[in-house]
Amino acid sequence: MRTDLATASDANLVTLVARWHGPAIAELYRRHAGAVFGLARRLLTDAALAEEVVQEVFVRLWREPERYD
After folding, report:
1. Which 3 state secondary structure label does DSSP give 1?
2. What CA–CA distance (Å, rounded) separates 30 from 44?
3. Is the pLDDT of residue 1 over 60?
4. Fewer CB atoms near the end CB (10 Å): N or C, the chain?
5. Phi-psi domain of 9 (left: phi exceeds 0; alpha: psi -120 through 50; beta: other)
């Protein structure tokens, strides 16, 4: 079965991430990294730290997808 990730819901993508489906985490990153960075940038005012936050969020999603709803 082929999953069209571009049209999959975020919930479906997280389910795929829990099954170690790399393309699903890439799609979630494509969709949400900008918003995560924007929020982190406003809170931290340091772009480098904000980039680290983005990386940490997606690494944690990859390692612990069950924590995300």
Report:
1. coil
2. 22
3. no
4. N
5. beta
Contact 32, 14 (CB under 8 A): no
Report pLDDT digits (tens) over 19-32.
999 999 999 999 99
25: which 2 tokens?
């985490």
User: Residue 67 corresponds to which tokens in the numbers above?
Assistant: 């924590």
Place of tokens 């069209």: 4
Q: What are 53's two structure tokens? A: 């936050």
- What residues contact residue 57 under an 8 Å CB cut-off, 6+ apart? 36
Query: 25 vs 45, 46, 47, 61, 63, CA distance in Å?
Result: 26, 25, 23, 8, 11
